[in-house]
Amino acid sequence: MFYSDAPVLLVSGGKGGVGKSSVSAGIANALCAKGFRMGVLDADLTGPSQSVLFPGEMRAEGSLLVPAACGNISVCSMGYLSEDPSALVWSEDAARSLFERFLFKTEWGRLDVLVVDLPPTSGMTTRVLMEFFERASTVFVTTESQLALADCRRDVTFHRKLENNAVGIIHNMAYHECGACGARQPIGASDELDAFARDAGLPVLARLPYCDTIADGEALAEVASCIAERKEFLHA
Amino acid sequence: MSVQRRPKGSYFDLLTVDGCSRVFSAYDLGDVLAIESLIVENSVIVNLLERSETSRKTVVRTTTGSYFLKQVPWYCAEPALVEFSASFASACAAEGLPVPVVHRTREGALFAEHDGGLFTVSDLAVGMVYSGSAREVAASANVLARMHQVGASCDLPAERPTTTTRWIAEEHIELARRISKERGESTPVFDALCGMLDTVECPSALQQYPVHGDFIPWNIAYNADGSVAALYDFDNASMDSRLHDVGEALVAWAALDFSGKHAGLAADIRGSIDESVSAQFLQAYEQVAPLAAEEREALCSHVLGAWWEALLLGYVKGEIPCSELRKLAELPAAVEEWSKHVL
User: Fold this and answer.
1) SS3 (DSSP) at B231
2) What are the pLDDT digits (tens) for A52-95?
């Protein structure tokens, strides 16, 4: 079954390196744990990460693609299809064809939610991708660095111009958790991020620790619960 | 054709619908609807963006079907050369060989000119990459032999490019020498190779054929049963001894180690030819088109020339370190040793 009208949750943020991919995978895992049939579309064509976070293999059946199967999560990423995606040059038209193939010529199975890991910058890729979705919701991942917040602010505006439903902000790398005693050491102050969230009229959905793998833990489980319970997030 | 360096400014973006539409306006193949860089056919995935080292290519979906659009590489983008290579490919397709049909423009040309570049449009043919099976080796040799048979009798344009193994070797030695100077690398091997050029000299009396010029596994797509689904890329076609193709094939199938990334070479040069694979290839070729006695005698020079060419190109592309090039001077002895056992 091709992607049809499963709710779409975009994970964005604007800045590179703030943890969009890690959070995307974490949300997919958390929702999967709640029994949702999940798909993850890695929309970062030149810097894909989902193939690293979800090791596997995409294959072809006839003229259809089959996503990598990672437990109950189906994943599509250029990372499975290229040895060096960073060397690929994508035009808008080529990206459009690829997304069309990923969404409508790929055997996704039945999905409850499609999580889309967006690339850095509010640019061509996201705009092209949105041609395929009637509606989508966006969570914004950011750290509290000035530069990340500035990009995130622009990204919120961009997604609102695209008429996506802005769900909230995930404060990533908010603290460091001591491996020995579990004590949480904040990484900087969160005043500016909170002020930005207030100005944008968005809730801070979660504050996540610094980690270099798939984001998980209680905080993201709460986000998943929030999404699961309030599916209007996804249907707005 | 020898591969010269990519000239700056030759870039043309084939990755836009507008750009492809302008090229397709010369053809009666319908309106362009979309372009695709990721091809999925017959359970095979082909990422064309990864195969654009020397020329840009894309699949173009139009109102009449899907076609393969390719920009002719800069080093052979001359009308007469393209007319020759595309005519040869068309003749092979017409004789039932697994070669995609090259389409003609409304005015009957086998290529279209646009924005300073030359473009060919052919049918889309997809298959699997070479997996190393014996059936694939034999099927490739069979197709090569049949291709030479077709070439010996087909009509081709009067203006025909010609090549010789010695000329190709010289061109690649000089290209690599220039690159080494630019890189500030020093090796006496180029002078040594120039001193050995007589070993790649081929008797001029050998029968001339249209040759493919780049007959390597990466220009062939295979079916699941090991048969050849498609032979691509006639850009380097010329008139030469058919040993040009046979020698290159023997080197590609039996003497090179690849890095695993397309046709990229492994950094370490192997100085021997796999006798089993090369014997298998030759046997399958000669079952269709036996070599004449004088051709068998001259085969070593073509194998050596092709080996040098491949490795020098590997150096130019940055796959092989300069320190490995000294081994090129040892290859004549390796070819001679191989010939004692296989020829």
Assistant:
1) strand
2) 999 999 999 988 999 999 988 999 999 999 887 777 778 889 89
From B118's Cα to the closest Cα of chain A, the distance in A is 21
Residue B102: Cβ-neighbour burial (10 angstroms; 0-12, 13-18, 19+)? buried
Domain membership of residue B138 (yes or no) is: yes
Closest residue in A to B262 (Cα–Cα): A83
Q: Give the model's pLDDT for residue B1.
A: 47
User: What pLDDT does B116 receive?
Assistant: 80
Question: Of B41, B45, B261, which has the smallest distance from its Cβ to A81's Cβ?
Answer: B45
Give the nearest partner residue to A105 out of B35, B40, B58, using CB atoms: B40
Residues with pLDDT less than 70, chain B: 1-15, 51-54, 260-263
Shared domain for B263 and B197, answered yes or no, is yes
Question: What count of Cα atoms within 13 Å lies in the side-chain half-sphere of residue B175?
Answer: 24
**Predicted model pTM:** 0.83
User: Do B70 and B174 belong to one domain?
Assistant: no
3-state SS, residue B2:
coil
Three-state DSSP at B172 gives helix
Are B330 and B270 in the same domain?
A: yes
Decide if B263 contacts B311 (C-beta within 8 A): no
Read out DSSP for B284-328? HHHHHSPPPHHHHHHHHHHHHHHHHHHHHHHHHTTSS-GGGGGGG
Between strands B112-114 and B208-211, the pairing is unpaired
Domain that holds residue B96: 17-123
User: Which residues in chain B are contacts of A98 at CB distance < 8 A?
Assistant: 36-38
Per-residue model confidence as pLDDT tens digits over B2-28: 455 555 444 445 568 888 999 999 999
ipTM: 0.78
Asked if residues A174 and A44 have their Cβ atoms less than 8 Å apart, the reply is: no
Q: Is B65 in CB contact (< 8 Å) with chain A?
A: no
Number of domains in chain B: 2
Is residue B101 included in any domain, yes or no?
yes
Q: Which domains does chain A have, with CATH numbers?
A: 8-235 (3.40.50.300)
- Same domain? For B196 and B115 the reply is no
